[in-house]
């Protein structure tokens, strides 16, 4: 039997290609927001996320900070799952975590990250959670379907 663990599930639909996780203290995001203000928001969030952030922050500033923190964690987890970290074509606002009508979080990518990703991977799944002063994100990306 071959003892190599590489490529145990070659090109199987739904097989995991990468996972990433991130956990962050909300107060760290709160400090960055206090220091850099809207510049920080625009650097981290994509266009639809910015709209949602402003709506939440207008109702309750704490909800805005928690939203920003969960999206920050999701972007970190996604960058780990695809193996790039924060280097091109991955940049903060290129990956958005939006929601389906059901509330399920989904990954939405902007160019050039979108094309780069679609050439390499299949569906991306994201899960977010928050508790007290912590938020966490988990991202799993599937292998790309063979054609």
How would you characterize this protein structure?
- This protein is α+β, with helices and mostly antiparallel strands and 147 residues long.
- Helices cover 39% and strands 28% of the residues.
- The chain has helices at residues 26-36, 38-44, 47-59, 61-81, 113-118, and strands at 16-25, 95-99, 105-109, 121-131, 134-143.
- The strands form two sheets. A three-stranded antiparallel beta sheet has the order 1-5-4. The chain has a two-stranded antiparallel sheet with strand order 2-3.
- The longest helix has 21 residues, at 61-81.
- The radius of gyration is 16 Å and the shape is globular.
- Residues 1-9 have low confidence and may be disordered.
**How would you name the oligomeric state of the polypeptide chains in this document?**
single chain
Tell me the helix content: 25-40%
Distance between termini? 29 Å
Q: Care to count the β-strands? A: 5
Task: Please work out how many helical segments DSSP would assign.
Answer: 5
Overall geometry: globular
Short description:
The protein has 147 residues and is an alpha+beta fold. The protein has 5 helices and 5 strands. Helices cover 39% and strands 28% of the residues.
Present the secondary structure layout.
Blueprint: E1 16-25, H1 26-36, H2 38-44, H3 47-59, H4 61-81, E2 95-99, E3 105-109, H5 113-118, E4 121-131, E5 134-143
Antiparallel strand pairs: 1-5, 2-3, 4-5
Attribute tags:
147 residues; 39% helix; three-stranded antiparallel sheet; alpha+beta; disordered N terminus
